[in-house]
Amino acid sequence: MSSARITEQSHSGRAPPVRFSTIRWLGSILVTAAIYLIAGKLALLLAVPPVYATAVWPAAGLALGCLLLFGDRAWPGVIIGSFLVNFWNSLDTATLGGIVKSVAMPLCIGGGAALQAYAGAFLVRWFVGIPTALATEKAVVRFSLVSTASCVIAATIGVTVLWTAGVIHSADYLTNWVTWYVGDAIGTLIFAPLVLIWSQGAADWRRKLSVTIPMTFTLAVVVALFFETNRWEQGRVRMEFDQRVESMTQKLQSDFNSYLDVLKSVQNFFASSPSVSQDSFHSFVARDIADHPGIQSLSWDARVPKAKVPAFIETARHDGLLNFHLTERDAQLKLIPAAPRDEYIVIRNVEPTFGNEKALGFDIASDPIRREASEWSRDKGEARATKQTKLTYENGTV
């Protein structure tokens, strides 16, 4: 072998074609990813929670078209594009688990989208053929069947990922799956043919327009129907919400009226019996408490001027409340003897007594929230609910 031939081979080896092929491969991936990302972001404008899929997903058809146009090696572009579309929607940086979930979910969904596009491209080449996929009516029918059949892949993987991650409930699984599948199927039927027809430079404009115009019209109809259906659904949901709010409002009002009737009966009971023992109080209100699950307890609070405190305490102890004394809460919410004041509003009777012993003798006037409500009711002659405050006989608040 001559030195001239050796030199010629060294300058005309396989390196340039390999370098060109790699650039072309990377370019097809980037183009596929960019197309998927743009189409996906635009399609998400049609997404309405709690359904996380959309009525039309053009990215599915464009992904299939890209793999048919660039070859199967462009599949990483589908994963990249799908990941970027879904990553920002699921991003949670609050915890490490949230970050892992934010990355894992879009990757799995992207894998499903890539697998769907890969399977669709394989089925189209095997059962229809390229570039004759849209040459005849028979080829168009076959293309439609195999391309939509592949759409079950992304729908199944995507919705299962959302369900496994707890994003959707089991009751919403089928709704999301159907919406996802239909969106991918419509996107595939409309946009994959457009990619194929417009990638054929030799095709005449009349043929391109004969495919593009009906597809565009179909897309417009589907989008219009979606928005109309979405408007109707939002109206239905709003009406259902209003009905539930009205029903709950009536139920709350009915309950409050019932509770007020109980309080008025207790008021009348004390008005007719100047001296009411704890046993008499128990006998009178026990039935009301049993009939009203919303009532945790009932108490009778007596207004006691400072001068009458000793006699008031003596009467309570004579009634069997041997440890009865006036109390209030300190800054640490501990019960302490009540501070001297001109008038006290003291819990004299409470039902049930068991578990509420600490409430007996408590001066509710020492609590600004309850004192304000009590004074307002006294001045207006109407019942009034207090703001949230800590009860004397429990660890919670009401």
Structure description:
The protein has 398 residues and is mainly α. It folds into 2 domains: 13-203, Arp2/3 complex 21 kDa subunit ARPC3 (Orthogonal Bundle); 273-380, CHASE domain (Beta-Lactamase). Helices cover 65% and strands 6% of the residues. It has helices spanning 3-11, 15-43, 58-70, 75-90, 96-127, 137-149, 151-164, 173-199, 205-272, 278-291, 309-318, 368-380; strands at 298-305, 327-329, 335-337, 343-351. Helix 5 runs antiparallel to helix 6. The longest helix has 68 residues, at 205-272. 29% of the residues are buried.
SSE map:
Blueprint: H1 3-11, H2 15-43, H3 58-70, H4 75-90, H5 96-127, H6 137-149, H7 151-164, H8 173-199, H9 205-272, H10 278-291, E1 298-305, H11 309-318, E2 327-329, E3 335-337, E4 343-351, H12 368-380
Antiparallel strand pairs: 1-4, 2-3
Helix pairs in contact: 2-3, 2-4, 3-5, 3-8, 4-5, 5-6, 5-7, 6-8, 7-8, 8-9
